[in-house]
Amino acid sequence: MTASRGDSRSGNGVRIQHPRAKLLAFVLLCGLPLFGSLSLWWRGISLIPLAAYGVVSLLTFLVYWHDKRRARVEGQRVPENVLHALELAGGWPGALLAQQLLRHKTRKVSYQALFWLIVALHQVYWIDRLFLENSLLTLL
Length: 140
Known about the structure:
The termini are far apart. The protein has helices at residues 19-42, 48-72, 80-102, 109-131, 135-139; strands at 7-9, 15-17. The protein is built from five helices and two strands, in the order E-E-H-H-H-H-H. The protein has one domain (17-132). The model is unreliable at 1-5 (pLDDT under 50). It is mainly alpha-helical. Helix 2 packs across helix 3 (80-102) and helix 3 packs across helix 4 (109-131).
């Protein structure tokens, strides 16, 4: 059986709706943090943001995977505040991938609201840093 043109199957056999659109959205969302992190590295300021996004995203993906496995066997779950802390620390790209590929933490509205707020905060930070010369951050 083949998946329809607008669908794809993840490794666990769950259908991912509109994979091309989701991939495009993921690439666009990652664009600002990636460009900003690379620009800091190229200017010799810091490699930390670039490394943090990569390492923390991988860690976050693995923690989501672990939590999904525990949810299936009704084991000790990872607290949501830990997942959100990892997302805030730069792991939101890994969390977004895990949510789609593992179909985990996608239905709880309160969880998704905070997750997308964290993604938006990262976007606003990089917009401010790259285009507004930190003018928003100085207001805080």
